[in-house]
Amino acid sequence: MLGHVPRKVRRHSLETALRSMGYRTRGETFEVHGYRELRGQRRFHAKVETFGEDMVPKAAQIDLHIDKMNGDALGRHGYEVEGEVIQDEMDRIVQTILEARSTDTNRTTCPHCGKELFADHLENHLKIEHRRH
User: Topology of 2-102 in CATH?
Assistant: First the structure.
């Protein structure tokens, strides 16, 4: 499923937005990849075009799909590109990017696991990931 970055955002803020949603990120020169595990040997795979710049432009392409891992030794796998689950996740990604500030002043680190995330996501992260209120 294809979507678009809703506004200009710094590359580092984009990576932090994905991490705050539970994605592992990997940056390449022209793209940011995010992976979030699902049940049953499946994972979300988000790829955002960055055009090699520090500032990701508005309307940059987001490619989101579900990888179906089948244990192939060469890493080959199938994928799903459409569906309600994928649409809901795309909406969450776009909303998280919209909530990200364009400055770098609103980041924090979880005191328990060291994960970098947006300060306003810390409370929910502690409740969900560490079961602390």
Answer: TATA-Binding Protein (3.30.310)
